Amino acid sequence: MAKKQKIESNKEASGSPEKLKNKDYLHELRRLHVELVKLQEWVKATGAKVCILFEGRDGAGKGGTIKAITERVSPRVFRVIALPSPTEREKSQMYVQRYIPHLPAAGEIVIFDRSWYNRAGVERVMGFCTEDQVKWFLKAAPAVEKAIVESGVILLKYWLEVSPEEQTRRLEARIDDGRKIWKLSPMDLKSYSRWYDYSRARDEMFQTTDTAWAPWFVAHSDDKKRARLNIITHLLGKIPYKKVPRPKVKLPKRQKRGTYKESDYAYKMVPEKF
């Protein structure tokens, strides 16, 4: 990531591509899902350890991106971690302590839907921690991540950047949609008004934690479908996976009925309303 490059989304940029058609998106996503399965089998076979962090403002598309990554793979290999607010006991621990147990073991890919970078973002902006705590975190995070990487973990950090206009559109769409209302919390409403506080927090976070061993990668996410495809393509390119040889599969013959007779048990059937 070029540090001097502006990352604020510009919706009026004349060179912006048209939004991806759903047919094209699904075609590419299917191809990438095949590659993700290959990655999964390679991780299992080699005992590799992969950790992927997703950060960004509310409405940036983190959840949809994670769902696109995980919808065709095994949850036993791809584990998604979305921690709730810390308990009183966790608040008394060293800050990163609650995240350490969730790091991948051999043969696992762990995806954090928000991570230890909560301290540099939402906690800082919303006043849930002191500036001294933030400064300590920003100083310590690169060393902690270096230790993680040196332990053999492939660590990838993604920031999804959404424009203020698109964020507004997405959050407004949640208000009256019964499928999405759970995504709009009182905290989201409070943080919405603090756009530039988040921008300043993000900028300092990049300046201090964008390291050679754990760089930040930024994806513009106004077009959610393009962002998902770009991120999946990128992460696949960052992991040296190979196709694991598998024996050809052929279904065996099903046994004959023999003396079996259908049961006359009165099953409680689900009503067929559709």
Elements, N to C (H/E): HEHEHEHHEHHHEH
The number of helical runs is 9
CATH architecture descriptor text? 3-Layer(aba) Sandwich
Q: How confident overall, as mean pLDDT?
A: 92
Uncertain residue ranges: 9-14
CATH superfamily (homologous) name: P-loop containing nucleotide triphosphate hydrolases
How is the biggest beta sheet arranged? Answer: 5 strands, parallel
Q: Outline, from the CA principal axes?
A: globular
CATH overall fold name: Rossmann fold
In total, how many domains does the architecture comprise?
1
| Name of the top-level CATH class | Alpha Beta
- Helix content, binned percent: 40-55%
Structural class: alpha/beta
Task: Describe the SSE topology.
Elements: H1 22-46, E1 49-56, H2 62-70, E2 78-81, H3 88-91, E3 108-113, H4 122-125, H5 131-150, E4 153-161, H6 164-175, H7 186-192, H8 195-209, E5 216-220, H9 224-238
Parallel strand pairs: 1-3, 1-4, 2-3, 4-5
Structure overview:
The protein has one domain (22-238): Rossmann fold, CATH 3.40.50. The protein has nine helices and five strands, in the order αβαβαβααβαααβα. The protein is globular. The chain has a five-stranded parallel β-sheet, sandwiched between helices. The N and C termini lie far apart (51 Å). 41% of the residues lie in helices and 12% in strands. The longest helix has 25 residues, at 22-46. With 274 residues, the chain is of the alpha/beta class. Mean pLDDT is 92; it is low at 9-14. Helix 1 (22-46) packs parallel to helix 9 (224-238) and helix 2 (62-70) crosses helix 9 (224-238). The chain has helices spanning 22-46, 62-70, 88-91, 122-125, 131-150, 164-175, 186-192, 195-209, 224-238; strands at 49-56, 78-81, 108-113, 153-161, 216-220.
